[in-house]
Write a structure and sequence with these properties.
The complex is a heterodimer. By secondary structure, chain A is of the alpha+beta class. Chain A has a single domain, classed as Translation Initiation Factor IF3 (2-Layer Sandwich). Chain A has 3 helices and 4 strands. Chain B has a single domain, classed as 3-Layer(aba) Sandwich (Hypothetical Protein Ychn, Chain: A), CATH 3.40.1260. A 5-stranded parallel beta sheet of chain B has the order 4-3-2-1-5, sandwiched between helices. In chain B, α2 packs parallel to α5.
Chain lengths: ~80, ~190
């Protein structure tokens, strides 16, 4: 998805994992994913650079659809659709 | 008259059954499971083992840790002091780090300055502490097995280990069996 498309997405849940380094954001995402329904969108805020590689790998493995990310000033927003 | 061997339904069924069994066996041998033999008791190496375990557990991989030899120090609870140890066990108890907060670095230890600096940096950069990692691991169902033999060697008692959900005590065969069916095996 393009940054524009991502910005227009309506996230069901925003997980703020900016206060934690690897593997914190992944753990936060894993814990939060249970709180939304299949097909809904989750947004993860992370200041950890590695998260941009880790979240797609996690999605790929457990079956969620990774939609992409875009950078803010000091962190990134990552989007996925729950399987 | 010529008899052609047309495969019957029964024959096909039999073949499918045989294949199903084979696939089941193969799948069992390559479970989505990570087995780590954690032998080192260095702060950096125990950290590595825990970070990898947490990432794997978050990715729905079953994680089985086998703590052996020096790594047992990381599982000691500094608040617990079991009775009834003999002289050598007591000496070992005194000489070995009492718990995960007392572990040394494998490099740049500098009489404890190194670990202090690393812990400061970890805090500054929002890396979870080892204590927090064990807590998360417990919540995510990471299994920890303590090697009975090294526990005996070092004179540790079951009562002096941390409160960890379903902490198990077993021998090398348990690791071999777990590792044998895991798709990932590590030695740290």
């Amino acid at each position: 998805m393009t940054t524009e498309e991502l910005k227009n997405l309506k996230s069901e849940l925003v997980v703020d994992a900016r206060g934690t380094a690897c593997p914190g954001p992944l753990l936060a995402a894993k814990k939060a994913i249970g709180d939304i329904e299949s097909g809904e969108i989750m947004e993860i805020l992370s200041a950890d650079e590695g998260t941009k590689n880790d979240i797609p790998r996690w999605c790929d493995k457990v079956g969620h659809e990774y939609l992409g990310f875009y950078d803010e000033d000091s962190f990134s927003r990552l989007f996925l659709r729950k399987d | 008259m010529e008899t052609t061997k047309e495969p019957t339904i029964e024959m096909l069924q039999k073949q499918v059954d045989t294949l199903t069994k084979k696939v089941e066996k193969l799948e069992k041998n390559r479970k989505d499971q990570l087995s780590i033999a954690v032998v080192s008791g260095d702060l950096d190496k125990v950290l590595a083992a825990m970070v990898i375990s947490l990432a794997a557990a978050a990715m729905d991989t079953q994680v089985k840790l086998f703590f052996s030899f020096w790594s047992l120090s990381a599982l000691r609870d500094p608040k617990k002091s079991p009775k009834g140890k003999d002289f050598i066990s007591k000496m070992f108890g005194i000489m070995l780090p009492k718990g995960k907060d007392k572990l040394a670095l494998s490099n740049m230890n500098m009489v404890g300055m190194g670990p202090m600096m690393i812990k400061m940096l970890m805090k500054k950069q929002n890396v979870m502490s080892l204590g927090e990692m064990f807590k998360q691991a417990g919540e995510l169902g990471v299994e920890i097995t303590v090697c009975e033999m090294s526990m005996g060697l070092m004179g540790f008692k079951k009562e002096e280990f941390i409160d960890y959900p379903n902490l198990r005590f077993a021998g090398a065969a348990t690791f071999v069996a777990d590792a044998g069916e895991s798709s990932m095996q590590l030695f740290i």
